[in-house]
Amino acid sequence: MEPWPGHWTPLGATYDPEATNFALWAPEAEQVEVCLFDEDDTETRLVLPNRTFDIWHGSVPGVRAGQRYGFRVHGPWDPEKGHRFNPAKLLTDPYALAVDGALTAHAAIYGHVRPSLDTGGDHRVRDDRDSAPYVPKSVVVDVHPFDWRGDAPPRVPWAETVLYETHVRGFTMRHPDVPEELRGTYAGLAHPAAIEYLTSLGITTVELMPVHQYVSEPDFLHRGSLNYWGYNTLAFFAPHNAYSSSGTRGQQVDEFKAMVRALHQAGLEVILDVVYNHTAEQGDGGPTLSYRGIANEAYYHVDPADRSRYLDYTGTGNTFRVAHPAVLGLVMDSLRYWVSEMHVDGFRFDLASALARSMHDVDMLGSFMTVIGQDPVLREVKLIAEPWDVGPGGYQVGEFPHLWTEWNDRYRDSVRDHWRGAAAGVRDLAFRLSGSSDLYADDRRRPYASINYVTAHDGFTMRDLVSYDRKHNEANGEQNRDGTNDNRSWNHGIEGIAGDADEALRELRVRQIKNMLTTMLLSTGVPMLLSGDELGRTQRGNNNAYCQDNEISWIDWSLAADHPELLEHVRRLLRFRRAHPVVRQRRFFEGVPVVDGGRKDIAWFAPSGAEMTEAEWHDGALRTLGMYLNGEGIRSRGVRGEPILDESFLLYVHAGAEDVDVRLPGRFWARSYEVVLDTADAGADGRHRPAARVRLTGRSCLLLRVIDRPRDG
């Protein structure tokens, strides 16, 4: 089976019925072997015969779709110079479209001497034990035409987007209406029962936690744990094989496509949480699985003072060197593949600041940001940054370019602090409610640059946020050292969900969840709901459930019966948001009348019924704020240039423990006010006159509709 010369492009394994072409970029290598594995794991090694532009290539006749393979790359072992070639280690193809198998915790997976997973070893001394029995294998995929059935992206405008962060496995593992054999899979998420729930909820966009092929860290496996979240990528083109119900020899590709097609048919977008900032190879003492053994110094930021070590801006041991042209090409090829071939609608970039680092500093004018902005495919999809990393200068909230939106942790912290009574007044909350103009307006960005969230996969669920003062991560096996201590949470007097046995405490906690959901879903910007918060999901105080592939992380669908008021509250809020463009602004408020003599586009009211004074804005003890949204003051226009008109609304957010009387704004602002929603009374209704006194229950939100809007005093 002598390889033919083949071609240097495209990279990876390109199937053809006559012969499959293999191509690997390895500029410093001295020889590259493609290794084929039969069903009993017998290995056949073939030397790739040609080298063009630093790419080793050859075409192997008779190789069929589903064939498992890997690479062995020969070259110098010289860690002090950044070289870690070791042909004893079978390497995953960086361009593999599918991966079969899982990682086994064995000392042979390391490229260096490590006698066991418990004791040390020297990462500068090469280990020559064969790793092939213990590592996943790349799979040759026949990229045949998929029947997309006329699939088209929903293209939901940013201003109308509602994100729903969820996990492919955790969403369906306990769903009673999803067949057991489909639970935890792409097909399970595509099941009509799952889709019906998502559409009935009212979200527009599903944001999936990582689905690129990942592996668990060997130390986790050794202690009987695993990586559940998936932020440990091995292959950037391959759908994670454990989420496939149909097979792992390429079938996972079609199953993923079918999932996207089903979600699109329901009008739902699909966004992927992607991890290009680091890989599963960890630090300089980590396993050799792919990139380290192919072109270590190109793929990773190495320490110029000691090239055997990595610069770690991610907290995982390594940082992917996206500024290198070939590595940037890999990332861009991967992103385009997921859009063009897999039909996804956008990406949330984990630790995105690390991707913008050229050499050491974060550079928003660097190659990654520039290429993304110029790419005709990627500039048309949704781009979300987690706008920080763990390195110096990595916190970049408000600094990403125009095409990007950002997870706004300032929003998260402000809302949490307000509702736990720890905020220094209401000034910061007003910025968050109105789109965070302090962060985004000066760069001429739009309000939807802010992804407004209170909870995410990383941290407490919303129920735990109101039930725990402290993290309880003992189940993770790290003596509760992992996870943040800065939760900005409040247990309301009793630690843990056991406190819900007290009916008054349970009612208060549910109201606080409603308060935070109301605040988020009525704020200008793009709301992101954590999957299960609408049901009252708990992780029992675990704020770092990365390794919990069990009931701690999976959605408990029986909660829908236990907390029906929460689910209905979210559905009601999302119906309201969808119906009213006044809470979906595409331009920042200006705080001035739209027409001479008219009302301001937004106005802020103190409990007295008067507009907030400068002194009140700086009153650290103030816990009550009224926000007036003028439906006739929407500054953006419709698609044909027509004015966008809506009703006007008045929202009160009151975080004080005691009930408070507020005076409603006077006749200039409304002829009367009608109750739309009260988090303290689900059945509240009625009307109030201008300047009337209205009692707000301690720790509650009140939303009022403006009736008979006047144009003058």
TrEMBL record:
Pfam family name, one = Alpha-amylase
Its keywords, alphabetically, are:
Glycosidase, Hydrolase
Please verify whether the record's keywords include Hydrolase: yes
- Give a yes or no for keyword Hydrolase in this entry: yes
| A single BP term in Gene Ontology | glycogen catabolic process
What Gene Ontology molecular function terms does this protein carry?
amylo-alpha-1,6-glucosidase activity
Task: Please state every residue range assigned to the domain named Glycosyl hydrolase family 13 catalytic.
Answer: 165-577
- Output the superkingdom of the source species: Bacteria
Output the NCBIfam families linked to this UniProt entry.
Answer: glgX_debranch
Q: Which family does it belong to?
A: Belongs to the glycosyl hydrolase 13 family.
What protein name is recorded for this chain?
Answer: Glycogen debranching enzyme GlgX
Please give the organism. Jiangella aurantiaca
The top of its lineage is: Bacteria, Bacillati, Actinomycetota, Actinomycetes, Jiangellales
